[in-house]
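Lab notebook, page 48
Experiment: co-folding of the full assembly
Goal: obtain a model of how the components sit together before planning crosslinking
Operator: M.T.
Materials (sequences as entered):
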Amino acid sequence: MNLDPTRILLVEDDPNDIELFQLALDGYNFVNQIDVVMDGEAALDYLHIGSAVSESVRSDLPRLVLLDLKLPKLNGIEVLRAIRSHRHTRDLVVVVMTSSAENQDLRTCYELGVNSYIVKPLDFQQFLNVTRQVGFYWMMLNQIPASQTELE
Amino acid sequence: MNHCSEKTSLGDSEAFLSLALRVTKAGTWRWDKVTNQVFWSKENCQLLGYDPQTTAASYENWLKAVHPGDRERVASQLAQAFSAATELNLEYRVLLPDGSVRWLAAFGERIDGEDGEPAGMIGIQLDITERKQAEKAQQTRLQVAMEAASMGIWESDLRTHTEWWSPQVEALFGFAPNTFDGDRNTFLARVHPDDRATVNADWEAAMRTGILRDNDYRIILPDQSIRWLSTLGKVFYDEAGHPIQVIGVDVDITERKQAEIALARSEALFRSLVDNLPFEVWAKDREERVIVQNPLARLRWGDNLYQIADRSNLSPELRAAWQEQDQRVWNGEVVQVEESDWVHGEWRTYTKIMAPIWHNGEIEAVLGVNIDITDRKRTEEELRQSELRFRNMAANVPGAIFRYVMHPDGSDQVIYMSPGCFDLWEVEADVVVEDARILWELIDDEDRPAMYESVLASARTLQPWSWQWRITTPSGKRKWLEASGRPQRLPNGDVVWDSLIVDISDRKWAAMALQESEARFRQLAENIREVFWMADIELSQILYVSPAYELIWGRTCASLYDNPESLLEAMHPEDRDRVLTVIQQRRYQGWNQEYRIVQPDGSVRWIWERAFPVTDANGQIQRVVGICQDISDRKQAELEIRQLNEALEQQNRNLEALVEERTALLLTFINALPDYIYVIEREEMRILFCNDRLARVTLLGDRYAVQGKTIFECFPPETAADFAEQNRQVFESGETMHIQEDCELASQHLHVDTYKIPLRRPDGTVYALISTSRDITELVLARQALIQRTAQLEVSNKELESFSYSVSHDLRAPLRHIHGFVNALQQRLQGHHALSDPKVVHYLQVIETSSQKMGLLIDGLLTLSRVGRKPMHYAPVQLRSLVEEAIALVQSSAETALATEFVIGELPTVQGDETLLQQVFSNLISNAVKFSQHHPTPRVEIGSSPEGTIWIKDNGVGFQMEYADKLFGAFQRLHNQLEFEGTGIGLAIVQRIIHRHGGIIWAESQPNQGATFFFKLTSDLNFSHEKDAMLF
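Observation: model returned without errors.
Model output:
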């Protein structure tokens, strides 16, 4: 698994939220590129693990996936389950950012092995801070193990 | 022709020869003297036991094949035949390789050359083994036969005066084989001197007659024993008629001779025996000739007098009998008869036995024996008569006569036992005679040793013996026997008793029974507590009174004997006439009555008297006997019982009254009950009892109309069938049934809650049941409505929850966007002139605060919805620590709280959800702080009342009580935002939490007087509170 250390995949259906994310991360050097998909199915296709997937394995996976839970077609939990159940994407860093603070959602995500679960703060300033901290932490500080395929 | 025929004849000869050789399996051989070569045919080679392939023909090989025993003979005869030119005719043996022997016959002749010189020999050989074997067998047989007959052959050559004896003859004369010297004198020397002359005479005679017959002469063997011989010979003569040879055989006849001698001796013995027999013996042949007659027979009959014909004095009957008897014997029978004959002047009786004498399968003679039994007969008759007399006597005496012997060794025996034996012992006499032990065994164990001792004593002293003893017969009958006898010692040491034994049981038993009966009576009469008396028929004399009289009457028996009238005096005056009347009337039948007597000291006793007449064998009344019993105690007891009974009856009456009263009470009560109550018996399901309420629903009338009817008469058929089934279950299981059911009654349709309780008899069987039914129609309807409502509520709750969830989630997003973009806008406008316009700044401010406010509202709503959905986790919760935490929380978030004084009273530990209760206190305390913040000395008190009500009291602004019920509505506010911030959702959350605990919350206040919020969790709270209070 090759990770592009500066790329983020944002899975988010609300254009306003997309814009706010872009606003929050704009100008931070740990992000070169934000790829956006607007539903769950598109996210799986992007990662080459969806139903319409080509044979090939995507070689340049994003360093971080920011995942909303309320999504058209496949919801965030289903996307997370697919990522974790696929050999090539199992180790991807997935951070759920959602409006929902429902315990049930939290528990499900943790059971599926989410890396972080963050409720989008209502206050814009807080939102900016949180988004940047998440990006900084997962893109810059966090270490992930070398994948099996890479070792081979 | 001739030539031809000659030729043909020569050919024929060869053919014949060839055939002959082949058929006889003969072997041919030829010896050439000149070349000394031997030629032989294949057959010849095989006859010698050689293989033609391996063995060449040669003289040496021939000799080698010959049996070693014959080899020399064969060689010499062969040489002889050659030299003498005689015909070779030789029989010899060949030893075959397998060890068996083959007999061959060889024939041959010398052939001479043309020069006439011997040129060799030719010959043939045949296998004659079979013939040889047959000959040998024959010879062996002859030899065996002669040996078996002890017979030997001899030849005497009269010309040479030599004799040849066969080995058998030599053996007969005691010579070893081949040792006889051939001299006739040697023979004569062995002949017994007494017979030598006869033997010589016979020899001379034989020369004339041609036959030698030497009968029965003796020879003396070397061991001096005598042997009898018999010789038979034939004389051979020459042409001139001179005897030249005698050939004969000798036979050993010693055994026959000895038998003859023995016979003669036995004959003599027999004669002497017959002559000396003490009875007549005779024998006669078919011609009635006397063959044997001993002297006794001769004495009676004379020499020839036995012949029937000569007995002219015979009676015709006897003659006929004799003839008939003779005939039977001649037919082979043995006849034995007893007959009488007039002999020498008197009648004598004989036993005559006649038997046939057989010879060669024919009856040759009749043997007769006449035994005179006259004297024996007479003695026997006398004995028989005597015996008969004795037996008659023995059989007719009562008991048994027997002869008992004790031998010196102590063993005993019954020699004679008369037939009376069986009557005494139930054992047959012959059994006893067989073994006397049975008599001893039947004797009672306790009597046996003494009896045996007495017998021994009698044997010792020879004193007369007499004894009485008891026996138990095989059938179990008990008997007393008596015997006596006089002992007699015999020469051999035996002691003999002739005894008479009689059954004396009746005598014995009677005596003993009488004794016992009297003893029993005495014992009884003297010891019973009752008075037994006996009086004469006139009742004028007391014959006997038992000693108990003295005790009961308080008077002596003697006084009664002296003065029978004293009985009357002792009677209670009130009873006397009655008693006397009864006695007068029933004197001859007996009586049974109770009366009182008065003892001399004045005390009164109750007497129960039973009397009855005693009759003799003729039915005549002899006397009167009676029994008097002191029944004073019984009378007393009777009196007491009567009193007790009366008391009990009174008690019963009281009880009945009480029962009646209680029953009425119970009935009233039962009728007043809101339940339908009735009792149903098991057999026909009849209502035994019911209350008025039940009677009413049957529409049959009051309960008296219903009681006694079956349930089928009282209820609609289907309902009755249901009831019957339920009842049956209860009756059969014996268990209480509790059901709720709908039932259709005559009057109405009811929902009832019914108990059917079995009623049992003391033995446990269920005989009825009691049924109580409560009308729960309203309850059921209410419950149904409730269930419906609950279902509706659940649906709307679900909707509400999903609504709340969506709201919280989806409403937040636009809010966040508003907030986000306002911020972005503000940044964008930094340094822009628009921001110098205060209006723009204000508008932006409003948008931002409004969006924040809305966020708070949404959070509140979310919390409220979550509170409703969160599962409850009940656990003991210490309220005090919750309060302390809530205060700390308020103080950390609101500055005004720091100025507030908190007073915490006593707080219980409750069952509840800790997280939710924490929220309750947080909200209430923060409210209290909030609304008292304008007070100079804000103060919040938290406490509880003993019955479990928790309260939170502040000294804040308070509220008007008419709004009290609006306090807990969501978004309900009583103050404007400028006065007090707030979403108006906090109390709604509190109320929901309290409700979820099953509790209630309320508030009391007056404006500016502060407010107090009260809440109570479940009634469990009370319990917990009390319990905790006790613990503290």
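Interpretation: Residues 277-372 of chain B form a domain with the Beta-Lactamase fold (CATH 3.30.450.20).
Next step: discuss with group before ordering constructs.
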